[in-house]
Structure formats: structure tokens, C-alpha cells
Amino acid sequence: MNSFKNIYNQYDWDTLLSGILSKTEDDVIHALGKDKRDLEDFKALISPAAKPYLERMAQMSKVITKKRFGNTIQMYAPMYLSNECQNICTYCGFSMTNKIPRRTLTDEEILKEVDFLKSKGYDHILLVTGEANRTVGVDYIDNAIQLIRSKFANITIEIQPLDQPDYEQLIDSGLYAVLVYQETYHRGEYKKHHPKGKKSNFDYRLETPDRLGRAGVHKIGLGALFGLEDWRADSFFTALHLNYLQKVYWKTKYSISFPRLRPFSGGIEPKVEMTDADLVQLICAFRLLDEDVELSMSTRESEVFRENIVNLGITSISAESKTNPGGYAVAPQSLEQFEISDERSTEDVVKMLKSKGLDVVWKDWAHNWQ
To answer: Which percentage of the chain shows pLDDT scores above 70?
Structure first.
């Protein structure tokens, strides 16, 4: 049976990182001169040697994105259903060890949140929960999808990893896409940050996109949480994972997200800093590697950064996000999973995007017909 773990096990983290850091200016120039780039070129484009070429990379990324996606950007909104969690994660406000009030939305509360988001124009929604199988397991998620499927063109989830039959059940109920971030591809650091709970199983999480591909989900979202380990190595493994999935599950669409570690009450400091320039370099490198992959930017980032990156490769963006269950209409003051940086209203973000010459897309195409 296909498994990315077989590919992953062929790489040594330290050797890989050393290879990225040893890339030269000639390697960068060679990569930039190609029409189609491979993973070795990607290493060069995320290496320190590429820093002097960041402006050139940005302009090339902008041209490629406009050619493939036009002057458009997709709007989506996350909606947190629950902050209950059975895992210990050192960087997350929902971690089991944090003494916070726990809440899981009822059907009535879900519909109140939905009414708010629909009033803002959203047609693509991302349902998010903590990882608590007994409280927000497959049956709860299935019910939530069926409850709101007639109200949104596309429904995406970011929840605990599931088995293949569970994903097949949710797809039948109207699920469009699943986001599953490895957090870090460094096995040792992963264990340090996930010491207890089902999420501590590195391999099970690593193979989740394989189960999604076999289940036939329409889109899979990948990413790493930058700050837990070296961003260059984590980014390469994300690209390696993407490359593998595209070859094996070629009917599926893919997206990449770029979350940087954000504060929460009592949270940890990043082990490795990822600067704004580093993040721009990475986004452009992914666009130069893959013209078709969707690149997403959340409200974790600042207003200034988001305003400057939307024309350089990003294809979808959120606005006015709340990272607590019921945060839009039911319980606005409850504890968030992490702090939001860009707190502007949806209307203000739309105005900004239009000022950048971008056409805001609320509904790409309708996946849920009933």
C-alpha cells in the first residue's frame, strides 16, 4: 500500500538541512532560469544563497500566479466548533493541560455562527475543532457538515486525523477538503511538542494524506508550523510530501498554508525564527516550484505583511477570523487557540484586496449540491 513514510524514511534531517544551506548562487541562478523546477531547485530557492534574488523571485512568482489564477483571490472563513482536546501540544491554547473553559457548539449555536458568516458573504468555510474523539468525533463532524452543507459551496475541515472509512463517510455527507498539518517533520522535535494523546503518533499523522487520497477527497491541504524547527528543512519535507501526493493521487487538488508560531496564554517561544523576508522567500519558492498549487494566508500574519504578499503568489485568504468556538456570535470573549494579528473586518480586507487590483471570489464552484 502506498505510504509517504517510505519516502520520508529515505531522508536524514541533518544531512538534508546541510544540503540546503550549502546551495550556491550558481544553483539559484540555474533554478531561476528553468521553465520547470524540481525539488533540488526548490532547495536552492529556499537557501540563504537565494536571499539576494528575492525581488526577482517575487516578480516571477507574481507573473506565474497571474497567468494561472488571474487577478483573483479566494475568501474563506474558519469556524471553530470546539476547544475540547485530549492532546498535550506545547504551543496550543487548547492543549489538555491548559485550565480553560471548554465548549462544544450545539446545532443551534453552529447555525448562529453560520448566519454571521453568511451575512459577511462567505461561501467557503473551514470547520475547526480540538482533537477530542469522544466529544467531537466523526459523528459530530458528520452532523455539522450535513447541518450546513446547503449554506456553503465548499466545506473544509481541520480536525483530528481519521481513518479512511471515516473520511469516506464525511465525503459522502458533503466534505470538500481536509487540512492536516504535520506541525514539524522532525520526528524528535515532534515528540517533544506532542508528548501525550493520539497526536503523539508521528507516523499516523504523517500518513493521513495517504488515507485522504485513497478516500478520494477533492482537496488536501499541507503545511508545517514554522518556529518548532528549522523552516527550511520543514518546508522541503512539505514540498516532498506534496510532490509524492501529486504523483500518487493525481486526481486530487492541493493547497499549502504557511502558519508561523503565534502566542497564546502561557505559550512557548519559537525555537527557530522565521522572518518576514524568509516567509516571502518561501511563498515565492513554492509558486516557482508549482504553478497550480493553491497558497493560503491566514490572519495569523499582520496587516502590513498580508497587504504586501497578496500579489506575490497567495490565492486564498481569510479575514475577521475567530479562533475560539462561538467566537463570531455565540461567545466572542472565550479563550482563543492563538492570537490573531490582522483583526480587520471582512469589509476592510475586501477593500484592501480591491485596491490591489484583485477580484474577490466568494464562490469558486459549488461542491455541495443539496
So the answer is: 95
Q: Are strands 154-158 and 177-179 parallel, antiparallel or unpaired?
A: parallel
- Give me the percent of the chain exceeding a pLDDT of 90: 78
Give CA–CA dist 138/140, Å, rounded.
Answer: 6
Q: Is the pLDDT of residue 171 over 80?
A: yes
Report field, pTM of the whole predicted structure over 0.90: yes
Mean pLDDT, residues 37-54:
98
Nearest CA to 183 out of 139, 217, 228, 216 is that of 228
Exposed/middle/buried for residue 160 (C-beta within 10 Å: 0-12, 13-18, 19+): buried
Q: Which residues pair with 154 in a beta bridge?
A: 124
- Give CA–CA dist 262/193, Å, rounded: 15
| Amino acid letter, 84 | E
